[in-house]
Amino acid sequence: MKGIAGPTVGMVMAECAQVGLMIVSKSVMSKGMSSLIFVLYSNTLAALLLLPVAFLYHRRTQLPSLSFSLVSQFFLLGLLGCLAQVFGYAGINYSSPTLGTAMLNLIPGITFILAVIFRMERLDCRRASTLAKSIGTIVSICGALIVTLYKGAALMTKSSSLSLHSYLLLPVQSNWVIGGLLLVADCVMASAWLILQAVVLKKYPAELIIVFFYCFFVAIQSAIICLYVEGGDSSAWSLKNRMRLISVLYSAIFGSAFQVGVSTWCLHRTGPVFVSMFKPLGIVIAVVGGTVFLGDTFYLGSLIGSCIIVIGFYSVMWGKTKEEKVDPKVGVVQPNSQKVPLLETIIEEI
Length: 350
Prior knowledge:
The chain has helices at 2-29, 35-57, 68-94, 97-104, 107-117, 128-149, 164-168, 176-203, 207-229, 234-237, 242-270, 272-276, 281-293, 300-326, 342-349; strands at 154-156, 298-299. By secondary structure, the chain is mainly α. A two-stranded antiparallel ribbon has the order 1-2. The longest helix is centred in the C-terminal third of the chain and has 29 residues, at 242-270. GO terms for molecular function: transmembrane transporter activity.
């Protein structure tokens, strides 16, 4: 368990930051800020913050030269991340935050499937560790869906003028079919981003520099989209509103820089499937935070779903620990690995 203790703590912190980002971003967008401009500002500021930190942190690390092929992969990482954010916000606008939160729980399953397809995870049904990871992934997704979609009886209620649960379940008039398809695209892009990032880390094992280039390219790509969609409307680009400024600062520091940086560090040490498994945990954190800090109502469905998610986590972690005892390098992104994943071979051919 020692090998995954650090990444486990890191991913819990990353998911806490993600829940906070979800709250502030929804708050500022409900007051008229464009989601595209929000993505642009937050990633631009994050890139500026990471530029000195990343290169100072890795100044003594021996790294390969930045070839055109490697920069192209950074660009592709940024494109996948940019599209995931754009599709995610658009999907929520067309449908509702309820559907958006539920759809995010598809990421662990999609990531696991992609990891198996591109030979980054072992799928041997005769091994107990493989069965534990597979079953744990399915169980955690089911638990997260229960927390999101099933209320049940109220177990704990506090009076509050603002409830996180009611805020996230705010009904909107929308086209659920289009919204659902956009959210599925968001999950596919996010899963592909995790897989590609694992491949890039093998060639360039410098987490902070990769995150810098990711934010840098997302800023450029979102700027092009913003100029086309938003045009020259000065009010849309304004940050005079204090809430807009605070939200952008939070997103840049704790969203783009901290959360992506920690997730990349954890991915480097455990692999993409382990990182994606923590997506459902964000719902549990949101429910607990809403009950304790915002007076949210704690429902029976939240309790049942949370318990199921915990069971799923223990199953996956047991499987990872079992594999580490057999091979300590299982799941870890190795820069000099002799087994070349299929995705890496395809990228090199391109």
